[in-house]
Design a protein that fits this description.
Layout lengths: L7 H5 L3 H10 L1 H4 L13 E5 L11 H13 L3 E6 L8 E2 L4 E2 L7 H8 L4 E3 L10 E4 L4 H4 L4 H4 L7 H12 L4 E4 L3 H7 L4 E5 L12 H8 L3 E4 L13 E3 L4 E4 L8 H19 L2
Parallel strand pairs: 1-2, 1-6, 2-5, 6-7, 7-11, 8-9
Antiparallel strand pairs: 3-4, 10-11
InterPro entries: Class_I_gatase-like
Protein name: GAL3B protein
Main location: mitochondrion
């Protein structure tokens, strides 16, 4: 008597190469069953935070947009922050320093990470396929001294180590808003964008950062933060150094434009991982 085909659930446990071999050996028997393609391991992405709040830490909308786009891209995410004191604390309702108050960057970053965060000292290239730095003044105050020292700034030791390690390993680095200054300082000759190089009546209030990037040894590329002639919000991809940047809140524009620009950055970072 003719052998009966195995039930579909049984085939679900067959590895794709074996499933293909069975189809080749008995095409009539297995032709009606679907064999899934091999599944690649999802990209593992580290996200480095610098506190909680635009004026003294991570820009929360940017961090959220990055996490949403990474989730949509199927990435596995681990968040990190340096375990150091903040430069200072800003009262965001007044835009002024809160005198006699101090906070820790890792502790504040845990607010965004919903508690699931580790010290930046534990971040290694072996555990991740890419790293992304959101913006916010924390990148210029807590991850570096750019807000105070400009082109003569120093970068946090662990931040510098992470940037150099990922670059050496040929793994992509994503940055948005003000954080591209970190790459410009640490990775000589890196191509980045913070948007435009002129304020244009206040539309690009931090345009002077582009000049500072050049002084740091980086190469600046003018990019839009909003819809232009192509159906994409712009990110700059430095294919040689695998550095991907986008202007985000360097531009005074609607929130959905920021979200979409960050999406372009994340998409290109994931593409460069090859996952």
């Amino acid at each position: 008597s003719a052998a009966l085909p195995p039930p579909a659930p049984m085939l679900a446990f067959l590895r794709p190469p074996l499933c293909t071999a069975l189809r080749w050996a008995a095409p009539g028997l297995f032709a009606s069953f679907h064999c899934s393609a091999p599944r690649l391991r999802p990209a593992r992405v580290a996200v480095v935070l610098s506190g909680c709040g635009v004026y003294d830490g991570t820009e929360i909308h940017e961090a959220s947009a990055i996490l949403v786009h990474l989730s949509r891209g199927g990435a596995e995410v681990q968040m990190y922050a340096p375990d150091v004191p903040q430069m200072h604390v800003i009262d965001h309702s007044k835009g002024q320093p809160a005198e006699a108050e101090s906070r820790n960057v890792l502790v504040e970053s845990a607010r965004i990470a919903r508690g699931k965060i580790a010290s930046l000292a534990k971040l290694t290239t072996a555990d991740h396929d890419a790293v992304i730095f959101p913006g916010g003044f924390g990148a210029a105050k807590n991850l570096s001294t750019f807000a105070v020292d400009g082109k003569d700034c120093k970068v946090n030791r662990e931040v510098e180590r992470v940037l150099k390690d990922f670059h050496k390993a040929g793994k992509p680095i994503g940055l948005c808003c003000i954080s591209p200054v970190l790459a410009a300082k640490v990775l000589s000759g890196a191509e980045v964008t913070v948007g435009h190089e002129e304020e244009e009546g206040g539309k690009w209030p931090y345009a002077g950062t582009a000049g500072a990037i050049k002084e740091l040894g980086g190469k600046h590329y003018v990019k839009e933060a909003v819809f232009s002639l192509t159906p994409f919000y712009e990110a700059h991809v430095d294919t040689k150094n695998k550095v991907v940047t986008t202007p985000a809140f360097m531009c005074e524009t609607e929130l959905h434009n920021i979200f979409d620009g960050i999406g372009a950055m994340v998409k290109n970072v994931l593409k460069l991982t090859g996952k």
